[in-house]
Amino acid sequence: MSEEENQTQFEKEHTRTDGGSNPRDGDGVVNTDGIEGTDVDGPAAEETDEVATGLFDDLLSGDPIFEDKEVLRPAYTPRDLPHREDQIDSMATVLVSALRGDTPSNILIYGKTGTGKTASAKYVSEELEATSRKFDVPCDVEYINCEVTDTQYRVLAQLANQFIEKNREGIQAEIDDLVSLRKTARQDLTALAPTRFESVDAVTDELESLRTDRDDFDDVPMTGWPTDRVYSSFFEAIDYRERVVVIMLDEIDKLVEKSGDDTLYNLSRMNSELEHSRVSIIGISNDLKFTDFLDPRVKSSLGEEEIVFPPYDANQLRDILEHRSQIAFVDGALTDEVIPLCAAFAAQEHGDARRALDLLRTAGELAERDDTDRVEERHVRQAQEKIEIDRVVEVVRTLPQQSKLVLFAIILLEKEGAHNINTGEVYNVYKQLCGELDADVLTQRRVTDLISELDMLGIVNAVVVSKGRYGRTKEISLSVPLEETESVLMSDSRLGDIDDVQPVVQARFDN
Ligand code: ADP
Ligand code: MG
Fold first, then answer.
1. I need a surface site. Which of 110, 236, 364, 500 has the fewest CB within 10 A?
2. Of ligand 1's atoms, which has the minimum distance to the CA of residue 77?
3. CA distance 282 to 300
4. Tell me: the pLDDT tens digits for 99-152?
5. Cα 496 to Cα 15, 393, 501, distances in angstroms
6. What CA–CA distance (Å, rounded) separates 312 from 87?
7. What number does the ligand 1 atom closest to the CA of 81 have?
8. Which ligand is closest in space to the CA of residue 114?
9. What is the sign of the dihedral through the CA atoms of 37, 39, 41 and 43?
């Protein structure tokens, strides 16, 4: 939902920018002298240049690189998804039952990030809803991103409220119809002939009961109710009408990781109790192994149909980028190497289309900043570097305090030129840092765990080496740019207070 809102926001902003960049495109009325002064193409610019000093002229002039940059952003949902035809067909083959009024099998979709799962699922659900409207079959698709809505309570509450709202709207429409029917019938009783009502009073009774139904639906608050009550609200809301409901749970692994499989258990056994409606679930997961954590009953019910989204190879990424770039860039803005290079970089990154699109957009922005009108190979390389640094900055910035201290200890050691840093050395410097900050000192065992976590995040590289009869130790090195990482750490208000780092590093050589 929020993605769609974002997109409209983007669209709005984009239209606004377009309108502003060339006031002559609009109707003549808005062209006051002042605005005309900024119109670099206009011959009137020199004559009426009374207000503007030309601050924006350079920025407006020159061939822009982007035709429509928003097309390269994650919020944009493409209608055209090359190399996902098979997966889209498989989904449609299962979901077509919904249009026949039957319950589709549950579907589990797997694939690494950026393999087009969300985009394909959204495309299919839009098609499904549109077709159901066309043929007037009651079918609803509800999309939930479980990374955001990550507890059973919130999933059920969100679903309940969506259906409560739908029910209210539906009931209101019926009420409006009946009110006007009653009005006509009061003048002319034959108006009731084609309906199921035999008298005006019968219409009034029905109106009464609809109004009660409408007012009986209570919104579920976002916290505070017992889960049972939320569940029954959802159950009643969904079962109020005859319909097939497809619940799409994106990033379902995040939900299970955070809150277990209760939600899935409850949703997957609903059909045996529902009287009027039917539920079918589409689960989308980035983690191929997440079903290992599921109750076997949930696992078999959810995995009735499984669809795998394999990573894209470089050629496929190239196609995807070609398609998108035709709308995103001005003709001729990309030199020949740009798309193949973006595709090659992203193919190394487990075939991630999101990464490929990010690279292409960032390369375009860097070229723009360079004041050239062509995106070149070097811009792609710079973009690759920038994205990698942005990723590191984000990961480091959000590390817990203790992990930051451990990382800082490693950085201080590297800055002193230490090689083959081992856990003991890191621990000594770490203890000194804790002393400076008055922070709790963790055990060496815990610090070893934190180092392993940093390793998994790709921030440090820790190799286990055997020291013969002295046992095994880890050799630790930084795998991210030192300066950038250090400056992110220093921007943390507490770590930034450490001004005298010298004695800390000294500690290593004292030991
Ligand atoms: P996932 O959900 O698997 O992580 P997404 O569906 O969000 O991946 O896709 C990531 C980005 O790549 C989105 O911007 C999406 O529009 C784009 N994308 C993925 N696959 C394709 C494709 N086959 N064609 C065009 N764009 C695609
Ligand atoms: Mg996704």
1. 500
2. 16
3. 13
4. 998 999 999 999 999 999 999 999 999 999 999 999 999 999 999 999 999 999
5. 42, 16, 11
6. 13
7. 24
8. 1
9. negative
